[in-house]
Amino acid sequence: MFQNQRLLLLLVLIAISFLIISRETKKTSSQIVLESTTEKPNPNERISFLGNVIENHGEENSEDYFLAVQPHKNINNGTPDQSYEEDHFDSTKCNLQEWNQIETNTIPNQKYHNLLMKSKTEKHNTLLNKSPSPFSAYVYSDHIVVTLTSEQNYSDVVFCRYYDCKMRELFGQHFESRYFPQSTVFCGRRKGAEYISITETLEDESEFPIRIIRRDLGKPSHFFTVCLSPLYGEEPKFLQIVDFIEYYKLQGATFFHIYVKNVSNYDRILLDDYVRTGEVEIIQIHDHFWRADFMWHRVQINDCHFRSKYFSKWTAFLDIDERIEMKKYPELRIVDLLDETSPNVSTLHFSIDWIVKDQLSPAKYLSDEELKENMIFRKFTNSSTKTDTYKQPKCIIRAERIAIMSIHHPPAIYDNSKISVVNYRIAAVRHYRNSFHKLFPEQIKRMMEYGPWKNTTVAPWISENLTKNILKRVKYLYDIKIPSDIIKQKYYAKEGSQMDLERINV
Ligand SMILES: *[C@@H]1O[C@H](CO)[C@@H](O)[C@H](O)[C@H]1NC(C)=O
Ligand SMILES: *[C@@H]1O[C@H](CO)[C@@H](O)[C@H](O)[C@H]1NC(C)=O
Ligand SMILES: *[C@@H]1O[C@H](CO)[C@@H](O)[C@H](O)[C@H]1NC(C)=O
Ligand SMILES: *[C@@H]1O[C@H](CO)[C@@H](O)[C@H](O)[C@H]1NC(C)=O
Ligand SMILES: *[C@@H]1O[C@H](CO)[C@@H](O)[C@H](O)[C@H]1NC(C)=O
Ligand SMILES: CC(=O)N[C@H]1CO[C@H](CO)[C@@H](O)[C@@H]1O
Predict the structure, then answer these.
(1) d(Cα 204, Cα 169) in Å, to the nearest integer?
(2) What is the mean pLDDT of the chain?
(3) At what angle do helices 238-250 and 265-276 cross, to 10 degrees?
(4) What is the annotated signal peptide range for this record (predicted)?
(5) Which numbered atom of ligand 1 lies nearest the CA of 130?
(6) Cis omega (within 30 of 0) on the bond before 362?
(7) Are the C-beta atoms of 143 and 187 separated by less than 8 Å?
């Protein structure tokens, strides 16, 4: 009965599409098609029934459901690179992938997690979210991690709920877990699960399930990548972004996870272009509960920690105004330091040099000269000379060995690996502190305690290459020569139209 109805629906759909085709091609066979839908063919004959129709090469006034259409060019001379058993893959099924056949009912390091929960390590519960708010999900060899935008309910019980390729719930296969670390839930794996959600009870309707991202490939594809804190606020960003990315590329980084709350359309062109070339992933952030822009930081660090686990061997957590530099051996790069780091070290900890940034960066590319003059590393060189090792340091970590990551350091590590505090004279962070920052005025006051102030510049090889690389990327995107109206008119004419240039405002 049910199958009959489905078939009927299918026939109606075919009839409607045929009706549309027939109208366009001014054929008159549509009535015959509509009549034939009332015949209710036996569902067992479905395959052969449609098969026949397709075989029958659509004579103009036949009763065919499909008209055979010849391709523009004869392309019968190739075969697909790879074939799958397409006869068994229909609209009701999921293709169960090789990698997605694993089931697990425990999560690794549970005992250690319980200890950390007891000691409330990195418990904040400071936001307003009233639901788990799944953000991203990552599958590793024996577990799944769901990160959340919520920062509530540390260590309370929750349920992982699994969904197949069509977002149909895999009923009865839920997994009981806890909110841990903050903004995170660890879940077991389920065969065929492609989406996942989190609810506080099994009766709760889940929020939109999210696609599970693969991080189960074993070997990371990158050696050194960077997580960039959320971008928001009024200051124009394109020059800061290109300076940041090109700087760390010179230092050996090969990929950037960039979290965006809001940037101008002009700045977005640049970010999108790095996505085009495969160097950047943009993670757009938006909460369905109220939160101020600066309240994203912890949630972003947490998400990027799990996003980077088994994606990259080493990951730096940085702000747009921070540049780690090799001070004693300026000819070396950060990746040279990482290559020399003992395998027993899971964290490199860098102290801060403050650099006064007392002007905003420009909003647009105007000329090479103007851009060069405004390049951050050229323009701002007034630097602090004292340091406090534990004052807002930044870290590069081995993500898979860290249990919890926070803004300045990892509060919990899995193995007995070490945090290595890098000698301040060997390497440190040039932190271009915006000296008219409105949000945290007390930080400016504290920064002033790190004098006396000294003029310091970056290594000549960096200055030279960075200038060149920034100019190249910026000009490629923004230095577009606008032709004269006459030339434009000529090209419009080639497309067959005479445009009123003033009207279309180009
Ligand atoms: C989560 O926290 C909120 C606010 O503190 C509370 O109302 C809610 O009951 C908690 N949920 C669970 C599952 O404990
Ligand atoms: C986003 O940023 C742009 C550029 O700074 C600004 O003009 C706009 O008002 C911002 N929008 C929101 C919703 O904050
Ligand atoms: C790493 O740690 C192990 C055990 O603590 C030690 O035997 C080994 O020498 C260390 N390796 C390095 C390179 O420091
Ligand atoms: C460097 O910054 C300090 C602290 O803001 C300031 O007192 C000093 O005048 C600046 N030096 C130069 C050369 O701008
Ligand atoms: C800082 O040093 C650089 C390079 O020696 C020099 O070009 C620049 O003028 C100096 N800036 C200031 C403010 O003294
Ligand atoms: C890392 C890098 O790109 N280094 C280049 C900097 O520029 C000089 C010449 O300008 C090249 O020789 C380096 O290879």
Answers:
(1) 13
(2) 87
(3) 30
(4) 1-22
(5) 3
(6) no
(7) yes
Instruction: Tell me the C-alpha distance between 180 and 417, whole Å.
Output: 22
Is-contact 228 258, C-beta < 8 A?
Answer: yes
Amino acid at 43: P
What's the CA gap between 253 and 396, in Å, rounded? Answer: 12
Structure tokens at 84: 């799958």
Pocket perturbation via mutation, ligand 2, pick of 264, 267, 269, 360 by most ligand atoms within 8 A of CB: 264
Bridge partner residues of 196 (DSSP): 162, 210
Q: What is the pLDDT of residues 308-329, one digit of tens each?
A: 999 999 999 999 999 999 999 9
pLDDT band at 53 (very low <50, low <70, confident <90, very high): very low
State the SS3 of 329-370.
Answer: CCCCCHHHHHHHCCCCEEEEEECEEEEEECCCCCCCCCCHHH
Domain residues of the chain, as ranges? 23-69, 100-214, 247-256+302-478
May I ask the CATH class of domain 100-214? mainly beta
Q: Is 129 in the pocket of ligand 1 (CB under 6 A)?
A: no
Q: For position 447, what pLDDT does the model report?
A: 85
Give the ligand with the smallest distance to the CA of 126.
1
pLDDT tens digit sequence for 148-188 = 999 999 999 999 999 999 999 999 999 999 999 999 999 99
Q: Are strands 134-139 and 322-326 parallel, antiparallel or unpaired?
A: unpaired
How far, in Å, is the centroid of ligand 5 from the Cα of 317?
30
